[in-house]
Design goal:
The structure is a homodimer.
Chain A: H1 7-10, H2 59-77, E1 87-91, H3 97-105, E2 110-115, H4 118-130, E3 136-140, E4 153-159, H5 168-177, E5 179-189, E6 196-198, H6 202-217, H7 228-234, E7 238-249, H8 254-270, H9 273-278, H10 284-296, E8 303-314
Parallel strand pairs in A: 1-2, 1-4, 2-3, 4-5
Antiparallel strand pairs in A: 5-8, 6-8, 7-8
Helix pairs in contact in A: 2-8, 6-10
Chain lengths: ~325, ~325
């Protein structure tokens, strides 16, 4: 959730969901994605960098995102399958967390992964090469000005990109241009409003709501998951099918208690504490109780729920 | 959501979830399920009847429940499979909406379906016989005083029962007694706190919250779905596995728009309008906007989400 950067910058890593590592970026914002609320940024530096990314760049954040990527790969990607010979555009690849999964699951497909950041692409390239995949080409590109002919790709893929955009429908339209007729687009997004737990408390809900409010101030939409279907339909894609991917966690699933509930979701919420308090979105006492209540819901008698949404549509 | 009745009465039809028809009941309340808040009841009659069922008994309510049963059967029951020769107890069968599904999907199993209401059992018997099933025996029984020996059944099944109980763990323990070692219990419950929609509005959330508040005043728990795992574990069952069953509705699924969003869920919320207003849980203007917003979310650009939970555990 970086702010003050162009769409691919703002969609860049680290993301609230599947990115494995994050670094500041250095490109200017695209006009349609200009940020309205720089005061919500954690850092007060140049708005053309992504140092204002709401979740920050701490070691704990990097660890959180790595936990998340590993935990969720099967849930989100088991059915991301492209026929051998397909040409696939991955938009906003960041440091390649999804790229590695796409390449591994689709060894016969040719994947073009683009991002606005040269630095990120270097990391992505190293990651994918280290994993032994030879079917990925990396290119620098701006989502709203893609350096590809019309109808170039058989399929388009993007994950945790739309949540950061003020006008996600415009991004989908830009991607539609480079997709051949009959090709598919796949978009995966989270939805922070889908979270709940047991025991349920008002304070925990208010702490999570801070994330939603902060992302809104940055021009994004933390509730974009539930909106995927109308977004795809409005962009003119056809046969859109959206499927929820719910993460349900109870004490019988200790890997998810650690990898998702604690190290992904609660860590993400905790990461915006200072911003939420300084903006007066919540008072310190409510915040602390909310976080404590969330941890309580990871205990033996607790449960934890969150839903991602995956949409596939055809041009 | 009847009030002032014993557990099976209170768990009786019509229910907020899968019941197909509802009638008042006439049995006295069990001590442990005595209701604290009779003022929340729609009717002011004898508390020993179920006429206080929060959703009422109108023709529209009967239609709502029928829509719901048909719409959700596959989602909730596709994996309710018992081996031929199994002896299965269905607890709180009401008028037999689930019984018919169980009998149909498990022709080799012998099913004993119990309810506290003779009148309901008559309807259930007629329904199951009309469907041509011969593998069901109906008996009058109180959940907390079951007329069966210890270890009698191979499997136990209950659906939309626990949500109405003040002490659901006690019900599970009563059922455990009649289940043989190694046998399974299957419990299905909804969770009104899992609902959300797009476009999201505060008023719509507040209208739904009225349902949660009313059920709490009646001694029940509209958020029991997320609580299934700890309930089963606390009752001493082992190997509990809970799976969420999410109903996701967008404009590509017109059957769910009508059968679930409008005719099941919104209709259920609308059914508590008078109680919610008379108790001051919400003001009329907020209520009307909330309902209008929910209908808007059933339109071409809207989406609608609700999650049921299904738990299976072994004795």
């Amino acid at each position: 959730m970086p702010c003050g950067a162009d769409p691919l910058v703002r969609a860049g890593r680290p993301r609230p969901a599947l990115r494995s590592q994050g670094r500041p970026r250095t490109r200017a914002p695209a006009p349609q994605e200009q940020v309205d609320a720089p005061l919500t940024c954690r850092y007060t530096g140049d708005l053309t960098t992504a140092a204002q990314y709401v979740h920050g760049y701490s070691a704990r954040e990097a660890e959180r995102l790595a936990d998340q990527a590993g935990t969720l790969a099967g849930l989100l990607h088991h059915d991301t399958v492209y026929p051998p010979g397909s040409l696939v555009l991955e938009c906003g690849c960041g440091t390649g967390a999804q790229t590695e999964i796409l390449a591994s699951r689709n060894p016969g497909a040719r994947i073009v992964s683009v991002d606005i950041s040269e630095e990120s692409l270097e990391q992505a390239r190293a990651r994918v090469e280290a994993a032994g995949h030879r079917n990925v080409e990396f290119r620098t590109a701006n989502l709203f000005d893609l350096p590809f002919d019309d109808d170039r790709f058989d399929h388009v893929f993007l994950c945790f990109v739309l949540e950061h955009l003020k006008v996600p429908a415009a991004a989908l339209q830009a991607l539609k241009r480079v997709l051949r007729r009959g090709g598919t687009i796949t978009a995966i997004e989270g939805d922070h409003g889908s979270w709940y737990c047991h025991p349920h408390t008002e304070e925990a809900s208010r702490a999570v709501q801070c994330l939603v409010d902060l992302q809104a101030r940055l021009g994004g939409d933390a509730l974009v998951g539930r909106r995927l279907y109308p977004l795809l339909a409005q962009a003119g894609f056809r046969d859109a099918r959206v499927s929820p991917r719910m993460v349900y966690v109870d004490n019988s699933r200790p890997d998810l208690v650690e990898g998702f509930s604690k190290n992904t979701f609660i860590a993400m919420v905790e990461g915006v504490r200072d911003q939420a308090l300084s903006l007066g979105l919540i008072d310190a006492r409510t915040w602390e109780k909310g976080i404590a209540d969330m941890y309580r819901a990871t205990g033996p008698d607790g449960t934890f729920c969150y839903t991602f949404f995956k949409g596939v549509a055809a041009r």
